[in-house]
Amino acid sequence: MTASTLSHDARNTFESTIGGYTVGGRAHSLSVWFVLALRLMMGWAFAYSGFTKLVAAEPFSSGGYLANVAATNGNPLADAFAWMAATPWFVEFANVAVPWGELFIGLGLLVGAFVRLAAFFGAFMMALFYFGNWDVAHGVINGDFAYMLVFLAVAAFGAGRILGLDAYIERYEIGGQQLIERYPALEYVLG
User: What string of pLDDT tens digits covers the 191 residues of the chain?
Assistant: First the structure.
């Protein structure tokens, strides 16, 4: 079998049941390259965004964004954004969390370490940006929403195991037992 042929074994099939509904599919063997590309693309975008905020001539400030982003656009979370903007400790927290969070999320994705954790926080940030940049003039789907789904797909497909450090971290042995077997909850942050 060549690398580009479809394998018909269980490794390329997936299935999930939620609320009594089961869906399943079979992925093409080339899918692994696209999952890797999504991980690296989002990693680069976030690492670059965080880095440029950290080295900018002016310190990053979230206050103006939080104060003005949701006030007039019909945002369902306008009150929450107004509270964030009016709460000094939260603004200071966001001033640190946004650039450093973007950098660490990006680096985690680029090297493939703690990918599910990084992707979760990336999706969380994109959800906040989605509501912060609320504009449904062209429908409820925009770039922020699409990026949120990309982060969730990267997590769901365990993209850190594809040319990433998570594959090695999971197999690390403690007392003759692989880390992921010894601590199964790590499945939610690695992969």
Answer: 444 444 455 567 878 889 999 988 888 888 889 999 999 999 999 999 999 999 999 999 998 888 887 666 677 888 888 899 999 999 999 999 999 999 999 999 999 999 999 999 999 999 999 888 887 777 788 889 999 999 999 999 999 999 999 999 998 988 888 888 889 888 888 98
52 contacts 59 by C-beta, under 8 angstroms: no
Q: Would you say 109 and 56 are in contact if contact means Cβ atoms under 8 Å apart?
A: no
> Sign of the C-alpha dihedral, residues 172, 178, 183, 185?
positive
Taking the C-alpha atoms of residue 161 and residue 164, their distance in angstroms, rounded to an integer, is: 5
Write the DSSP symbol of residue 104.
H
How far, in Å, CA of 160 to CA of 170, rounded?
Answer: 10
SS (H, E, C) 55-90: HCCCCCCCHHHHHHCCCCCCCCCHHHHHHHHHCHHH
Who's near 64: CB < 8 A, 6+ residues apart? Answer: none
Helix axes 31-55, 143-156, angle to 10 degrees: 120
